[in-house]
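Trying the structure run again after the queue cleared.
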Amino acid sequence: MEQYNLPKAGAQRWVVRRKAEVLEAIGNGHLSLEDACARYALTTDELIAWKVAYQRHGLNGLRAMKTQAYRRQQNQSGRTGERPAA
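Done. Tokens:
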């Protein structure tokens, strides 16, 4: 089994690396979406938004400062809030 260096429970400062670690653990089945939400006091919508941002824009999509810019681009291009399954 792969070793994951997950952020400590209750982490409040979400840098790109920490978000990516959580997404990788969820994607590889090491951590369930529900467990991640409980462990880090996040909503399902937040985690799905991270996943979508990562899928569309890579690691840069996980940067907080870039999130608003990407949302503006989507709104201007006429995209709606498409949400793939987690």
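The mean pLDDT is 81. Worth checking whether this holds up in the mutant runs.
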